[in-house]
Amino acid sequence: MARILSIDFGEQHVGLALGDSDEGFVVTKPALVGLDTPSLFAALDRLIAVEHVDELLVGLPLTLAGRASRQTQAAQAFIDALRHRLAIPVRTADERLTTSQARRAGVSEDDSAAAALLLTAELERRKHA
Fold first, then answer.
1. pLDDT over threshold 90, residue 128
2. The sheet that has 55-60: what strands, in order across it?
3. Domain with 50 in it
């Protein structure tokens, strides 16, 4: 059983969703809003410990053409910092359109809903791999 924390990284809002690879469930967690970098990492450290997270899945925001952007560079720096400080795997997934899908679904916590969509897609991919 692997407990996975999915992260939709943004410079102001960090969406979160928690899932279990064996059970297949995904639940949103409250987004982290307006935190400076040390506070963001402290909040993630607490959540990882409390929820017994085995793995992180971080969305990589590519352009629709599949190219890197300024947001991609910021997300990659965040991912690199996570990999440096954590002893659990930090994986990435293409997050194109997850936030817009969450907004179309009318979800108020669209950042965490985007993280949930990202994780749901990853769990489906693993189930059929």
1. no
2. 26-33, 13-20, 3-8, 55-60, 90-94
3. 3-127
